[in-house]
Amino acid sequence: MAVGQDAGAARPAEEIPHDHLYKVTGLSSTNLQKLAQEHAAPEPEAADFEEAIAATGYGKFNLCLMLCSLPAFFSAVSVTSSTSYIFSRAQCDMNLSLLDMGTVTAMTYGGMISSAMVWGFLSDTLGRRQIMVWGFFCSGLVELTAAMSQNFATLLVMRFASGFLFNGPFAVLISYIAELHRTELRARVILLSSLFYTLASTTLPLLAWALLDDQYTITIYPGYFVLHSWNIFLLTTGLVPLLTGIVFLCLPESPKFHMSRGRNDEAMATFRKIYSLNTGKPAEEFPIKKLVEEKQERQRGGVAALRGGGAQLAPLFRAPYGKWLLLMCVLHAGSMFGSNTVRLWYPHLAAMLGSDDADSLCSAIAPSAPPPSDGGAAPPCLPVHTDMLTYLQSAAVGAGSVLTYGIGGVLINRCGKKLVTGFCGIASGVLLAALPSLGTSSVSVVTVVTAALALTALSAASMSSIAVDLFPTALRVMAMATFLMCGRLGTITGAVAFPALIEYGCIPPFITIAAVLGVCGCACYLLPNTTLKKLE
After folding, report:
1. Among 46, 149, 167, 321, which residue's CB has the most CB atoms within a 10 Å radius?
2. Mind giving me the DSSP string for 377-388?
3. Helices and strands (DSSP H and E) totals, the chain
4. H or E stretch covering 225
5. What PANTHER family does the entry give (predicted)?
6. What is the pLDDT of residues 122-132, one digit of tens each?
7. SS3 (DSSP) at 228
Protein backbone atom coordinates (compact mmCIF):
# COMPACT_ATOMS: atom_id res chain seq x y z
CA MET A 1 0.00 0.00 0.00
CA ALA A 2 2.84 2.33 0.85
CA VAL A 3 4.58 1.45 -2.37
CA GLY A 4 1.46 2.34 -4.32
CA GLN A 5 1.21 5.66 -2.55
CA ASP A 6 4.83 6.44 -3.29
CA ALA A 7 4.34 5.60 -6.93
CA GLY A 8 1.23 7.78 -7.07
CA ALA A 9 3.00 10.64 -5.40
CA ALA A 10 5.91 10.41 -7.76
CA ARG A 11 3.80 10.26 -10.92
CA PRO A 12 3.16 14.07 -11.25
CA ALA A 13 6.89 14.72 -11.08
CA GLU A 14 7.65 12.53 -14.13
CA GLU A 15 9.27 14.47 -16.94
CA ILE A 16 8.17 14.29 -20.58
CA PRO A 17 10.86 12.48 -22.57
CA HIS A 18 13.20 14.73 -24.54
CA ASP A 19 12.60 12.82 -27.78
CA HIS A 20 8.81 13.31 -27.47
CA LEU A 21 9.25 17.10 -26.99
CA TYR A 22 11.55 17.20 -29.97
CA LYS A 23 9.06 15.29 -32.17
CA VAL A 24 6.17 17.61 -31.25
CA THR A 25 7.93 21.01 -31.28
CA GLY A 26 11.17 20.41 -33.06
CA LEU A 27 12.94 21.93 -30.01
CA SER A 28 14.79 20.35 -27.13
CA SER A 29 13.57 20.90 -23.56
CA THR A 30 16.53 23.23 -22.90
CA ASN A 31 15.62 25.41 -25.87
CA LEU A 32 11.97 25.41 -24.79
CA GLN A 33 12.95 26.73 -21.35
CA LYS A 34 15.05 29.50 -22.90
CA LEU A 35 12.17 30.42 -25.20
CA ALA A 36 9.76 30.61 -22.25
CA GLN A 37 12.12 32.83 -20.32
CA GLU A 38 12.51 35.19 -23.27
CA HIS A 39 8.73 35.62 -23.62
CA ALA A 40 7.95 35.75 -19.88
CA ALA A 41 6.96 39.07 -18.28
CA PRO A 42 10.06 40.88 -17.00
CA GLU A 43 10.58 41.06 -13.24
CA PRO A 44 9.56 44.55 -12.03
CA GLU A 45 12.51 46.65 -10.98
CA ALA A 46 12.63 47.37 -7.25
CA ALA A 47 12.17 51.03 -6.36
CA ASP A 48 13.73 52.76 -3.37
CA PHE A 49 11.81 54.93 -0.92
CA GLU A 50 12.44 58.20 -2.76
CA GLU A 51 11.07 56.81 -6.02
CA ALA A 52 8.03 55.38 -4.28
CA ILE A 53 7.12 58.51 -2.31
CA ALA A 54 7.60 60.65 -5.45
CA ALA A 55 5.23 58.34 -7.36
CA THR A 56 2.45 58.99 -4.82
CA GLY A 57 2.25 62.61 -6.02
CA TYR A 58 1.11 65.59 -4.01
CA GLY A 59 -2.54 66.18 -3.18
CA LYS A 60 -5.27 65.55 -0.64
CA PHE A 61 -3.22 63.33 1.64
CA ASN A 62 -0.43 65.88 1.97
CA LEU A 63 -2.91 68.68 2.64
CA CYS A 64 -4.66 66.56 5.28
CA LEU A 65 -1.30 65.74 6.84
CA MET A 66 -0.39 69.41 7.19
CA LEU A 67 -3.83 70.29 8.54
CA CYS A 68 -3.55 67.52 11.13
CA SER A 69 -0.14 68.82 12.16
CA LEU A 70 -1.44 72.38 12.67
CA PRO A 71 -2.88 71.71 16.18
CA ALA A 72 0.34 69.87 17.04
CA PHE A 73 2.33 73.04 16.42
CA PHE A 74 -0.17 75.07 18.42
CA SER A 75 0.37 72.52 21.19
CA ALA A 76 4.12 73.06 20.94
CA VAL A 77 3.63 76.79 21.47
CA SER A 78 1.07 76.43 24.26
CA VAL A 79 3.02 73.79 26.20
CA THR A 80 6.21 75.86 26.19
CA SER A 81 4.86 79.43 26.16
CA SER A 82 1.46 79.55 27.88
CA THR A 83 3.00 80.21 31.30
CA SER A 84 4.69 83.31 29.90
CA TYR A 85 1.29 84.94 29.52
CA ILE A 86 -0.02 84.12 33.01
CA PHE A 87 2.81 85.64 35.04
CA SER A 88 1.28 89.12 35.05
CA ARG A 89 -1.84 87.62 36.67
CA ALA A 90 -0.47 84.69 38.66
CA GLN A 91 2.49 86.46 40.28
CA CYS A 92 0.33 87.78 43.10
CA ASP A 93 -1.82 84.64 43.43
CA MET A 94 1.32 82.52 43.93
CA ASN A 95 3.79 85.19 45.15
CA LEU A 96 6.15 84.63 42.21
CA SER A 97 9.49 86.39 41.84
CA LEU A 98 11.29 86.85 38.51
CA LEU A 99 13.47 83.84 39.29
CA ASP A 100 10.35 81.76 40.08
CA MET A 101 8.90 82.71 36.71
CA GLY A 102 12.08 81.64 34.96
CA THR A 103 12.10 78.37 36.89
CA VAL A 104 8.51 77.52 35.88
CA THR A 105 9.41 78.08 32.24
CA ALA A 106 12.61 76.07 32.57
CA MET A 107 10.85 73.08 34.19
CA THR A 108 8.88 72.39 31.00
CA TYR A 109 12.10 72.15 29.04
CA GLY A 110 13.71 70.14 31.85
CA GLY A 111 11.01 67.50 31.39
CA MET A 112 11.67 67.48 27.66
CA ILE A 113 15.38 66.93 28.18
CA SER A 114 14.90 64.09 30.64
CA SER A 115 12.79 62.12 28.17
CA ALA A 116 14.64 62.87 24.92
CA MET A 117 16.58 59.60 24.59
CA VAL A 118 13.66 57.45 25.76
CA TRP A 119 11.24 58.85 23.19
CA GLY A 120 13.78 58.78 20.38
CA PHE A 121 14.59 55.13 20.99
CA LEU A 122 10.94 54.07 21.31
CA SER A 123 10.00 55.83 18.08
CA ASP A 124 12.87 54.33 16.09
CA THR A 125 11.95 50.85 17.30
CA LEU A 126 8.17 50.85 17.80
CA GLY A 127 7.01 53.29 15.12
CA ARG A 128 6.07 56.93 14.63
CA ARG A 129 2.28 56.88 14.70
CA GLN A 130 1.58 55.34 18.09
CA ILE A 131 4.19 57.57 19.74
CA MET A 132 2.43 60.65 18.36
CA VAL A 133 -1.04 59.44 19.32
CA TRP A 134 -0.27 58.46 22.91
CA GLY A 135 2.32 61.17 23.52
CA PHE A 136 0.09 64.09 22.55
CA PHE A 137 -2.96 62.61 24.28
CA CYS A 138 -1.22 62.00 27.61
CA SER A 139 0.50 65.36 27.45
CA GLY A 140 -2.92 66.98 27.11
CA LEU A 141 -4.16 65.18 30.23
CA VAL A 142 -1.20 66.49 32.22
CA GLU A 143 -1.73 70.00 30.83
CA LEU A 144 -5.30 69.96 32.13
CA THR A 145 -4.02 68.89 35.53
CA ALA A 146 -1.42 71.67 35.54
CA ALA A 147 -4.15 74.19 34.72
CA MET A 148 -5.83 73.44 38.04
CA SER A 149 -2.69 74.13 40.11
CA GLN A 150 -3.31 76.05 43.30
CA ASN A 151 0.31 76.58 44.38
CA PHE A 152 3.79 77.06 42.96
CA ALA A 153 5.03 73.53 43.78
CA THR A 154 2.14 71.81 41.97
CA LEU A 155 2.55 74.02 38.92
CA LEU A 156 6.28 73.26 38.88
CA VAL A 157 5.81 69.47 38.98
CA MET A 158 3.06 69.46 36.37
CA ARG A 159 5.09 71.60 33.98
CA PHE A 160 7.93 69.09 34.25
CA ALA A 161 5.57 66.16 33.58
CA SER A 162 4.01 67.93 30.62
CA GLY A 163 7.40 68.56 29.06
CA PHE A 164 8.42 64.94 29.69
CA LEU A 165 5.42 63.63 27.76
CA PHE A 166 5.33 66.24 24.99
CA ASN A 167 8.95 66.02 23.86
CA GLY A 168 8.68 62.64 22.13
CA PRO A 169 5.69 63.08 19.84
CA PHE A 170 6.79 66.53 18.66
CA ALA A 171 10.30 65.30 17.77
CA VAL A 172 8.68 62.39 15.92
CA LEU A 173 6.35 64.74 14.05
CA ILE A 174 9.22 66.56 12.31
CA SER A 175 10.68 63.29 10.99
CA TYR A 176 7.21 62.00 10.12
CA ILE A 177 6.36 65.03 7.98
CA ALA A 178 9.74 64.86 6.22
CA GLU A 179 9.35 61.15 5.44
CA LEU A 180 5.99 61.64 3.75
CA HIS A 181 7.20 64.20 1.17
CA ARG A 182 9.54 63.82 -1.79
CA THR A 183 13.05 65.29 -1.82
CA GLU A 184 12.38 68.60 -3.58
CA LEU A 185 9.44 69.41 -1.30
CA ARG A 186 10.95 68.29 1.99
CA ALA A 187 12.78 71.47 3.02
CA ARG A 188 9.86 73.68 2.00
CA VAL A 189 7.38 71.55 3.94
CA ILE A 190 9.51 71.80 7.08
CA LEU A 191 9.54 75.56 6.58
CA LEU A 192 5.77 75.49 6.17
CA SER A 193 5.43 73.56 9.41
CA SER A 194 7.52 76.27 11.05
CA LEU A 195 5.05 78.78 9.61
CA PHE A 196 2.35 76.88 11.51
CA TYR A 197 4.42 77.47 14.62
CA THR A 198 4.38 81.17 13.80
CA LEU A 199 0.61 81.17 13.33
CA ALA A 200 0.25 79.49 16.71
CA SER A 201 2.55 82.10 18.26
CA THR A 202 0.18 84.75 16.87
CA THR A 203 -2.99 83.01 18.03
CA LEU A 204 -1.87 82.31 21.61
CA PRO A 205 -1.56 85.97 22.71
CA LEU A 206 -4.95 86.72 21.17
CA LEU A 207 -6.43 83.87 23.21
CA ALA A 208 -4.65 85.25 26.26
CA TRP A 209 -6.17 88.67 25.61
CA ALA A 210 -9.66 87.14 25.39
CA LEU A 211 -9.31 85.17 28.64
CA LEU A 212 -6.84 87.15 30.77
CA ASP A 213 -7.87 90.75 30.12
CA ASP A 214 -10.42 90.61 32.92
CA GLN A 215 -9.78 89.46 36.48
CA TYR A 216 -12.37 86.90 37.52
CA THR A 217 -12.47 83.83 39.75
CA ILE A 218 -14.54 80.67 40.02
CA THR A 219 -14.62 79.48 43.63
CA ILE A 220 -15.16 75.73 43.92
CA TYR A 221 -13.90 75.17 47.48
CA PRO A 222 -13.28 78.48 49.31
CA GLY A 223 -9.70 78.86 50.48
CA TYR A 224 -8.51 75.66 48.81
CA PHE A 225 -9.66 75.36 45.22
CA VAL A 226 -10.21 78.58 43.27
CA LEU A 227 -9.90 78.95 39.50
CA HIS A 228 -8.62 82.32 38.35
CA SER A 229 -8.64 83.68 34.83
CA TRP A 230 -5.15 82.28 34.22
CA ASN A 231 -6.36 78.79 35.24
CA ILE A 232 -9.11 79.01 32.62
CA PHE A 233 -6.54 80.09 30.04
CA LEU A 234 -4.34 77.06 30.81
CA LEU A 235 -7.37 74.75 30.69
CA THR A 236 -8.24 76.02 27.22
CA THR A 237 -4.72 75.56 25.85
CA GLY A 238 -4.48 72.11 27.47
CA LEU A 239 -7.32 70.81 25.32
CA VAL A 240 -5.28 71.24 22.12
CA PRO A 241 -2.66 68.47 22.65
CA LEU A 242 -5.46 66.20 23.85
CA LEU A 243 -7.34 66.68 20.58
CA THR A 244 -4.11 66.40 18.60
CA GLY A 245 -3.55 62.86 19.82
CA ILE A 246 -7.05 61.90 18.70
CA VAL A 247 -6.54 63.50 15.25
CA PHE A 248 -3.36 61.48 14.62
CA LEU A 249 -5.38 58.26 14.86
CA CYS A 250 -6.45 59.04 11.28
CA LEU A 251 -2.88 59.02 9.88
CA PRO A 252 -0.90 55.95 8.71
CA GLU A 253 2.45 54.71 9.93
CA SER A 254 5.46 56.11 8.04
CA PRO A 255 6.26 53.88 5.03
CA LYS A 256 9.93 54.77 5.46
CA PHE A 257 9.81 53.23 8.93
CA HIS A 258 8.14 50.09 7.53
CA MET A 259 10.85 49.72 4.86
CA SER A 260 13.66 50.22 7.36
CA ARG A 261 12.19 47.33 9.37
CA GLY A 262 11.81 45.00 6.39
CA ARG A 263 8.02 45.34 6.26
CA ASN A 264 7.75 46.19 2.58
CA ASP A 265 4.20 44.82 2.22
CA GLU A 266 2.94 47.28 4.83
CA ALA A 267 4.94 50.09 3.26
CA MET A 268 3.49 49.27 -0.17
CA ALA A 269 -0.05 49.34 1.23
CA THR A 270 0.60 52.80 2.67
CA PHE A 271 2.10 54.07 -0.60
CA ARG A 272 -0.93 52.82 -2.52
CA LYS A 273 -3.34 54.47 -0.10
CA ILE A 274 -1.50 57.81 -0.38
CA TYR A 275 -1.42 57.48 -4.19
CA SER A 276 -5.15 56.83 -4.32
CA LEU A 277 -5.95 59.82 -2.10
CA ASN A 278 -3.67 62.16 -4.02
CA THR A 279 -4.64 61.16 -7.57
CA GLY A 280 -8.17 59.80 -7.19
CA LYS A 281 -7.12 56.65 -9.05
CA PRO A 282 -7.49 53.07 -7.77
CA ALA A 283 -4.69 51.94 -5.47
CA GLU A 284 -3.93 49.04 -7.84
CA GLU A 285 -2.70 51.52 -10.48
CA PHE A 286 0.21 52.65 -8.29
CA PRO A 287 3.16 52.45 -10.74
CA ILE A 288 5.64 50.98 -8.25
CA LYS A 289 5.21 47.21 -7.95
CA LYS A 290 8.25 46.24 -5.86
CA LEU A 291 10.33 47.93 -3.16
CA VAL A 292 13.99 47.44 -2.40
CA GLU A 293 14.84 45.46 0.71
CA GLU A 294 16.33 48.02 3.07
CA LYS A 295 16.59 45.43 5.81
CA GLN A 296 16.66 41.69 5.29
CA GLU A 297 15.47 40.66 8.74
CA ARG A 298 12.30 41.84 10.40
CA GLN A 299 12.84 43.87 13.52
CA ARG A 300 11.43 42.33 16.65
CA GLY A 301 9.13 44.45 18.78
CA GLY A 302 8.26 44.78 22.44
CA VAL A 303 10.86 43.73 25.01
CA ALA A 304 13.14 42.31 22.32
CA ALA A 305 13.23 45.74 20.65
CA LEU A 306 14.06 47.45 23.94
CA ARG A 307 17.03 45.12 24.46
CA GLY A 308 18.54 46.34 21.21
CA GLY A 309 18.70 49.96 22.36
CA GLY A 310 22.43 50.04 23.04
CA ALA A 311 23.29 48.66 19.62
CA GLN A 312 20.98 51.21 17.98
CA LEU A 313 22.33 54.18 19.92
CA ALA A 314 26.04 53.49 19.40
CA PRO A 315 26.31 54.40 15.66
CA LEU A 316 24.86 57.84 16.33
CA PHE A 317 27.95 58.82 18.33
CA ARG A 318 30.53 57.24 16.03
CA ALA A 319 31.91 58.33 12.67
CA PRO A 320 30.60 59.61 10.34
CA TYR A 321 27.60 60.89 12.32
CA GLY A 322 29.15 61.74 15.69
CA LYS A 323 30.91 64.97 14.70
CA TRP A 324 27.84 66.34 12.90
CA LEU A 325 25.58 65.47 15.82
CA LEU A 326 27.91 67.31 18.22
CA LEU A 327 28.09 70.39 15.99
CA MET A 328 24.34 70.46 15.35
CA CYS A 329 23.60 70.13 19.08
CA VAL A 330 25.95 72.98 20.04
CA LEU A 331 24.52 75.24 17.33
CA HIS A 332 20.94 74.50 18.25
CA ALA A 333 21.61 75.04 21.95
CA GLY A 334 23.07 78.48 21.19
CA SER A 335 20.26 79.37 18.81
CA MET A 336 17.56 78.44 21.33
CA PHE A 337 19.44 80.24 24.12
CA GLY A 338 18.98 83.43 22.16
CA SER A 339 15.62 83.11 20.47
CA ASN A 340 13.57 81.32 23.15
CA THR A 341 14.85 83.49 25.98
CA VAL A 342 13.60 86.62 24.23
CA ARG A 343 10.40 84.91 23.04
CA LEU A 344 9.45 83.49 26.44
CA TRP A 345 10.19 86.66 28.38
CA TYR A 346 8.74 89.12 25.89
CA PRO A 347 5.04 88.81 26.96
CA HIS A 348 5.97 89.80 30.49
CA LEU A 349 8.32 92.50 29.23
CA ALA A 350 5.56 93.86 27.00
CA ALA A 351 3.27 94.07 30.00
CA MET A 352 5.99 95.90 31.95
CA LEU A 353 6.58 98.25 29.00
CA GLY A 354 2.89 99.14 29.04
CA SER A 355 2.93 100.15 32.68
CA ASP A 356 2.56 103.81 33.55
CA ASP A 357 6.02 104.23 35.13
CA ALA A 358 8.02 102.69 32.27
CA ASP A 359 9.49 105.20 29.84
CA SER A 360 12.01 102.87 28.12
CA LEU A 361 12.92 99.22 27.76
CA CYS A 362 15.63 99.39 30.41
CA SER A 363 13.43 101.19 32.94
CA ALA A 364 10.77 98.50 32.45
CA ILE A 365 13.18 95.58 32.79
CA ALA A 366 15.22 96.86 35.71
CA PRO A 367 13.00 99.33 37.60
CA SER A 368 14.14 100.86 40.84
CA ALA A 369 12.98 99.05 43.95
CA PRO A 370 9.73 100.48 45.39
CA PRO A 371 9.92 102.06 48.81
CA PRO A 372 8.64 99.91 51.68
CA SER A 373 5.23 100.65 53.11
CA ASP A 374 4.65 102.20 56.52
CA GLY A 375 6.17 100.22 59.35
CA GLY A 376 8.92 98.74 57.15
CA ALA A 377 6.73 95.92 55.87
CA ALA A 378 6.99 94.73 52.29
CA PRO A 379 4.67 96.58 49.91
CA PRO A 380 1.54 94.74 48.79
CA CYS A 381 1.72 92.76 45.57
CA LEU A 382 0.34 94.70 42.64
CA PRO A 383 -0.16 92.71 39.40
CA VAL A 384 1.29 94.21 36.24
CA HIS A 385 -1.41 96.00 34.30
CA THR A 386 -2.17 94.56 30.87
CA ASP A 387 -4.44 95.75 28.12
CA MET A 388 -5.24 94.90 24.52
CA LEU A 389 -2.09 96.65 23.24
CA THR A 390 0.09 94.41 25.42
CA TYR A 391 -1.21 91.23 23.78
CA LEU A 392 -1.28 92.76 20.31
CA GLN A 393 2.44 93.46 20.65
CA SER A 394 3.07 89.77 21.39
CA ALA A 395 0.84 88.79 18.46
CA ALA A 396 2.79 91.12 16.17
CA VAL A 397 6.05 89.52 17.31
CA GLY A 398 4.61 86.08 16.54
CA ALA A 399 3.27 87.12 13.14
CA GLY A 400 6.53 88.72 12.08
CA SER A 401 7.98 85.43 10.87
CA VAL A 402 5.35 84.91 8.17
CA LEU A 403 7.09 87.08 5.57
CA THR A 404 10.47 85.66 6.53
CA TYR A 405 9.30 82.10 6.01
CA GLY A 406 7.82 83.04 2.65
CA ILE A 407 11.14 84.47 1.49
CA GLY A 408 13.07 81.60 3.04
CA GLY A 409 10.95 79.01 1.24
CA VAL A 410 11.95 80.55 -2.09
CA LEU A 411 15.65 81.02 -1.32
CA ILE A 412 16.49 77.90 0.68
CA ASN A 413 17.01 75.61 -2.33
CA ARG A 414 18.77 78.34 -4.34
CA CYS A 415 21.16 79.72 -1.73
CA GLY A 416 21.61 76.58 0.36
CA LYS A 417 20.36 75.69 3.82
CA LYS A 418 23.54 76.45 5.72
CA LEU A 419 23.86 79.92 4.12
CA VAL A 420 20.31 80.81 5.20
CA THR A 421 20.93 79.38 8.68
CA GLY A 422 24.17 81.27 9.24
CA PHE A 423 23.05 84.61 7.85
CA CYS A 424 19.85 84.65 9.91
CA GLY A 425 21.74 83.81 13.10
CA ILE A 426 24.26 86.61 12.64
CA ALA A 427 21.62 89.19 11.63
CA SER A 428 19.42 88.40 14.65
CA GLY A 429 22.41 88.82 16.98
CA VAL A 430 23.13 92.28 15.57
CA LEU A 431 19.50 93.36 16.08
CA LEU A 432 19.32 92.16 19.68
CA ALA A 433 22.61 93.86 20.51
CA ALA A 434 21.03 97.17 19.47
CA LEU A 435 17.88 96.62 21.57
CA PRO A 436 19.04 98.33 24.82
CA SER A 437 19.98 101.49 22.90
CA LEU A 438 16.42 102.09 21.69
CA GLY A 439 14.48 105.05 23.03
CA THR A 440 11.14 105.21 24.72
CA SER A 441 9.08 104.11 21.71
CA SER A 442 7.46 100.73 22.22
CA VAL A 443 6.96 100.54 18.43
CA SER A 444 10.71 100.44 17.83
CA VAL A 445 11.13 97.73 20.48
CA VAL A 446 8.39 95.62 18.92
CA THR A 447 9.87 96.08 15.43
CA VAL A 448 13.39 95.02 16.44
CA VAL A 449 12.22 92.07 18.54
CA THR A 450 9.88 90.92 15.77
CA ALA A 451 12.64 91.03 13.16
CA ALA A 452 15.15 89.28 15.43
CA LEU A 453 12.77 86.47 16.37
CA ALA A 454 11.68 86.03 12.75
CA LEU A 455 15.29 85.56 11.70
CA THR A 456 16.08 83.14 14.52
CA ALA A 457 12.93 81.15 13.71
CA LEU A 458 13.99 80.81 10.07
CA SER A 459 17.50 79.86 11.16
CA ALA A 460 16.14 77.16 13.49
CA ALA A 461 13.82 75.79 10.77
CA SER A 462 16.69 75.55 8.27
CA MET A 463 18.85 73.93 10.92
CA SER A 464 16.14 71.33 11.58
CA SER A 465 15.98 70.58 7.87
CA ILE A 466 19.74 70.02 7.79
CA ALA A 467 19.49 67.68 10.80
CA VAL A 468 16.78 65.61 9.08
CA ASP A 469 18.98 65.21 5.98
CA LEU A 470 22.17 64.28 7.83
CA PHE A 471 21.02 61.08 9.54
CA PRO A 472 19.62 57.78 8.17
CA THR A 473 16.14 56.53 8.97
CA ALA A 474 17.20 54.14 11.74
CA LEU A 475 18.90 57.01 13.61
CA ARG A 476 16.86 60.01 12.50
CA VAL A 477 14.34 60.34 15.30
CA MET A 478 16.99 59.56 17.92
CA ALA A 479 19.20 62.24 16.37
CA MET A 480 16.32 64.73 16.22
CA ALA A 481 15.42 64.01 19.84
CA THR A 482 19.03 64.66 20.87
CA PHE A 483 19.12 67.76 18.66
CA LEU A 484 15.95 69.16 20.24
CA MET A 485 17.12 68.14 23.72
CA CYS A 486 20.22 70.32 23.37
CA GLY A 487 18.12 73.19 22.08
CA ARG A 488 15.92 72.93 25.15
CA LEU A 489 18.99 72.81 27.36
CA GLY A 490 19.92 76.16 25.82
CA THR A 491 16.40 77.43 26.53
CA ILE A 492 16.62 76.38 30.19
CA THR A 493 19.94 78.18 30.53
CA GLY A 494 18.54 81.33 28.97
CA ALA A 495 15.27 81.29 30.94
CA VAL A 496 17.13 81.16 34.26
CA ALA A 497 20.12 83.32 33.22
CA PHE A 498 17.98 86.21 31.95
CA PRO A 499 16.57 87.28 35.35
CA ALA A 500 20.00 86.66 36.93
CA LEU A 501 21.72 88.92 34.37
CA ILE A 502 19.10 91.63 34.90
CA GLU A 503 20.54 92.03 38.41
CA TYR A 504 23.62 93.52 36.72
CA GLY A 505 21.63 95.95 34.59
CA CYS A 506 19.74 96.17 31.32
CA ILE A 507 22.64 95.71 28.87
CA PRO A 508 24.29 92.42 30.01
CA PRO A 509 21.41 90.03 29.13
CA PHE A 510 21.02 91.37 25.58
CA ILE A 511 24.75 91.56 24.86
CA THR A 512 25.14 87.95 26.04
CA ILE A 513 22.30 86.74 23.83
CA ALA A 514 23.61 88.65 20.81
CA ALA A 515 27.14 87.25 21.24
CA VAL A 516 25.87 83.65 21.42
CA LEU A 517 23.71 84.06 18.32
CA GLY A 518 26.55 85.67 16.35
CA VAL A 519 29.03 82.90 17.18
CA CYS A 520 26.53 80.18 16.30
CA GLY A 521 25.67 81.92 13.04
CA CYS A 522 29.34 81.93 11.99
CA ALA A 523 29.78 78.28 13.00
CA CYS A 524 26.86 77.23 10.75
CA TYR A 525 29.19 77.50 7.75
CA LEU A 526 31.05 74.45 9.03
CA LEU A 527 28.00 72.27 8.28
CA PRO A 528 27.86 70.13 5.11
CA ASN A 529 25.66 71.12 2.19
CA THR A 530 22.49 69.00 2.31
CA THR A 531 20.31 70.97 -0.13
CA LEU A 532 18.17 68.53 -2.19
CA LYS A 533 19.91 65.58 -0.51
CA LYS A 534 17.93 62.32 -0.61
CA LEU A 535 16.97 60.66 2.66
CA GLU A 536 19.00 57.58 3.57
Report:
1. 167
2. PPPPP-PPP--H
3. 22, 2
4. strand 225-228
5. EG:BACR7A4.13 PROTEIN-RELATED, SYNAPTIC VESICLE GLYCOPROTEIN 2
6. 776 777 888 88
7. strand
